[in-house]
Design goal:
single chain; about 170 residues; 2 domains; five-stranded mixed barrel
Length: about 170
């Protein structure tokens, strides 16, 4: 049986690239910055759509977000593992290739850093899975594990979960 292409958007020369405009008001961080990760708000905790902001348009209050599954971007990632109930970060660990990376809602995150290795945020709620740590290149591969048992923010290539993939 031959399948028909119903709409033009179902065909892309680059594959399944997904770039969409999202109003600032629908993002967890309502003041988005290009190149930073983002999360679209949802009614259900830890199931939010995540991606990387490509462009912000202050005139229209929208951000163009790349929701492409498996796209890799260079991101800042906090090596926090657990929090001390609404107070501060409690434990940290090294980040290794393949480690899960989460969009972290914790108020204790450094300014401009949205990703961490913690599955739970500072109040014990589940963070949204954003993707996985990867080496940027052969030189970067030699630098893994990154971070350690003390607090740090590391630059990591992150393969984003994006759209079209199961969140769990």
């Amino acid at each position: 049986m031959t399948e028909a292409i119903v709409q033009d958007y179902q065909v892309a020369s680059e594959g399944a690239v997904r770039h969409w405009e999202i109003p600032y008001a629908r993002l967890t961080d309502a003041t988005p910055t290009a190149t930073k990760p983002c999360e679209v708000t949802s009614l259900t905790d830890s199931t939010q759509l995540t991606g990387t902001i490509l462009v912000v348009d202050d005139d229209l209050d929208v951000a163009v977000v790349d929701f492409t599954s498996s796209m890799v971007y260079w991101q800042e990632v906090r090596n926090v593992l657990t929090y001390n109930q609404d107070v501060a970060e409690l434990t940290w660990g090294p980040i290794n290739i393949g480690d899960e990376i989460y969009y972290d809602h914790s108020a204790t995150m450094p300014a401009g850093v949205y990703l961490s290795t913690s599955p739970l945020n500072f109040d014990g709620t589940t963070n949204t899975r954003f993707g996985w740590a990867l080496p940027r290149n052969a030189t970067d591969m030699a630098l893994f594990e990154k971070g350690g048992a003390t607090a740090s923010t590391q630059e990591i290539a992150v393969m984003q979960l994006g759209s079209g993939s199961a969140a769990t």
